[in-house]
Design goal:
Layout lengths: L1 E5 L6 H12 L3 E3 H11 L2 H11 L6 H11 L9 E4 L5 H13 L6 E6 L2 H9 L1 E3 L6 E3 L26 H15 L1 H7 L4 E5 L4 H13 L1
Parallel strand pairs: 1-3, 1-4, 2-3, 4-7
Antiparallel strand pairs: 5-6
This protein binds adenosine monophosphate.
Adenosine monophosphate binds next to helix 2 and helix 3.
């Protein structure tokens, strides 16, 4: 099963993708996470991507495409995958379709997780991440067991540079301008399902699960 998750930053794509990945045993591929790992490790890709990410801008399409296509060559993608944060522009969507077509493959379903802007700003200002293992938390809705410390690896949690309020607003406007047009693009192909993301994450997951089981 090949799944694409759409939705503004802070809609809960990462949380849902992780749960879908566990339930359906397909890898969760987050382009944001791959970029952050590269930034953390100081690779050439990370160095190039960092300034875009820190400003809340999108990394150029060619860099992103190469990175994704490279990842999709890994053997764990054989039975499908869940893409979180990709595609994010019309150029990426079209190039991705072409790449899939060459392999005689196609996207099975696109889930569009919808959340209002005010809810997003509230959610993202409380978000904390572990700089070492990437686990995410929320100071109110999903706090770690020990304040400020990652449950999984014990590292000190941080605010992602691009979760600062002014950058969040920038990311939202970039989403509305560059990524939202993909909703119509996939709806036109009858593979889009809208999900109300302004609910408890488990409730959202239950709905997604029943859609994917069907
Ligand atoms: P995310 O964790 O998905 O919110 O991504 C964090 C940042 O990584 C974004 O704000 C972009 O700067 C960059 N990024 C992630 N995915 C993409 C993509 N598909 N195209 C371009 N930039 C991306």
């Amino acid at each position: 099963m090949k799944i694409v998750l759409l939705g503004p930053p802070g809609a809960g794509k990462g949380t849902q993708a992780a749960m879908i990945s566990g339930r359906f045993e397909i890898p969760h591929i987050s382009t944001g996470e791959i970029f952050r790992t590269n930034v953390h490790e100081g690779t050439p890709l990370g160095k190039e991507a960092k300034s875009y990410i820190d400003q809340g801008l999108l990394v150029p399409d060619d860099l992103t495409m190469n990175m994704v296509l490279d990842r999709l060559n890994d053997p764990d993608t054989e039975n499908g995958y869940i893409l979180d944060g990709f595609p994010r522009t019309m150029v990426q969507a079209i190039m991705f379709d072409e790449a899939l077509e060459q392999r005689n493959e196609s996207i099975d379903i696109v889930l569009d997780i919808d959340v209002e802007d005010e809810v997003i700003v509230e959610r993202m200002s409380g978000r904390r991440i572990c700089p070492d293992c990437g686990e995410t938390y929320h100071i109110e809705h999903l706090p770690p067991k020990i304040h400020g410390i990652c449950n999984l690896c014990g590292s000190e949690l941080i605010v992602r540079e691009d979760d600062r309020p002014e950058t969040v607003l920038k990311r939202l406007s970039v989403y509305r301008e560059k990524t939202e047009p993909l909703v119509d693009y996939y709806a036109g192909r009858n593979i889009l399902t809208k999900i109300d993301g302004d609910r408890d994450s488990l409730e959202v997951f239950r709905e997604i699960e029943s859609i994917l089981e069907a």
